[in-house]
Amino acid sequence: MDTADESPEGPAAEVDRNSATSPARDEGPGEVTARPKRSFFGGPVFMVLFMALVAGATFVVTMLLMSINDHQVEGSRAFYNVVELDETSYDPATWGQNYPIQYADYKKTAEFTPAEHAGTMVPHSVEGDPRSEVKSQKLEEDPRLIEMWSGYAFAVDYRHARGHEYATIDQQYTLRNAKDQQPGTCANCHVSAPALYDKLGNGDREAGFEATGTMKLSEVLADGSVSHPVACIDCHDPKTMELRVTRPSFMRAIKALKASQGVNDFEVNKDATPQEMRTYVCAQCHVEYYFKGDNKVLTFPWDKGIDIDNIYSYYEEQGFTDWTHEKTGAPMLKAQHPEFDIWSNSVHAANGVGCADCHMNYKRVGAGKVSNHHVTTPMVDVNASCGTCHKTGDGVIEKRVRTIQANFISSRDRAFDALVGLISDLEAAKTNGTSPEQVALAQQYQRKASFYLDYVYSENSYGFHAPDYEQRIINQAENAAQNGRLALTGKTAEELKASDVSTANAEHYPSDKAATGASQGSGH
Prior knowledge:
- This protein is mainly alpha-helical.
- The chain contains 26 helices and eight strands.
- The chain has helices at residues 3-6, 11-17, 44-76, 92-98, 100-107, 138-141, 144-148, 167-172, 175-179, 187-190, 193-200, 205-211, 217-221, 248-260, 268-271, 274-280, 308-318, 339-343, 347-350, 355-359, 382-385, 396-429, 436-457, 467-487, 493-496, 500-508; strands spanning 121-123, 133-135, 290-292, 297-299, 323-324, 331-332, 362-365, 368-371.
- The strands form four sheets. The chain has a two-stranded antiparallel sheet.
- Its main location: other.
- It is found in: Cell envelope.
- It is an enzyme of class 1 (oxidoreductase).
- One of its GO terms (molecular function) is metal ion binding.
């Protein structure tokens, strides 16, 4: 008898015990039952992987809870004022007793930060001027500026800008004041406004604002009690530390701009979001502006919108002129420093990235996080300013910035050469028999070309704040300059107007909607 058939430990019994894991198979004569397969989920490899996964998940959750706890502790940490702050706390040193970290950074705006387009510090010795060094002279670097501004104070002195610490003294002793006494309106952005308004308006800041244009700048700055540069109180509520706007010029302008966009009765200090305020406090000064009326009231030209075409149209409707060009007799407009205006037409603005995100990036101090009050170029710390959004390798952001700025300078130079050529042609037209009608038309083209070019030249990002938008402005400036030269050859305004195709494209892709994505799109 076959003992294998009788033994309970034989192959048949083995198959029965493992029937759950090995499929049954018919045995023919002489066949042997296959060995069962061991389950992966019951093996040692699975157990090791499982334990590693559990350990990893535990670590991640633990770290997350620790981070949440750290932030809760930061938020609940008790704060004790050393001094009580109120609406008369004008001196930032007083605020510095409560906020020493921010104050120490603020004082760094007195330091020179080297940058590719920042100019250099040069020795300075002028009788009556206490400054021993100043920034280098842009008029020497680019004499075409003297041609563009011929007859205006900026053709006398136009230097690279220094930090906020020097906003008052550099304005007080610029040679532009010697050329043409500037109005007190300039003080709105070159001193701490609340102190100035309280003094001039006897506590009524709105009245103090209106009074600035009735005085000369030298009169305003002669009072040492109101001649401190921009300070903490300009941007922060002394009781809550919340950001706020203190200059009526911006309050009025942003209300008008929002109305042009369909948002009525916008009150910036009530209706703006905290993120918007991180830009709006800067936009109190870093904007295009003009002095309106006999009292030279500081006004931002945003009633029709914030695209340059809107702004130029506004000036045309107002009939406003800054000065008459000394060489050509053209009625001219002087652009200022429209950083906010240009940024508003950028991809960064469309995505909610504000001024402070790049120029006052957050930094860690111990267990806390604060805004860096050393307001400066983002290129000082690209990782902290750009790296929070752009995860790139070393040198990629810097190369991108240099490329944008190099392209901007190249385009700007071509437009500038065309403008200088127009000025030369207009000067010659005075004596070569050119008709007054041709000269008048060419002067209008000079006015537009000069304003558009000045707009991007006076904006301090060298094309970076809104690269595509600024290239468009430069193209418009060059086109106006070339049309001006053609006008002197006898071409009429009708002959020089845009083609039907260009006009149709402009209507289909309106430039003043580009930044918000409100244009009609590609049409596909």
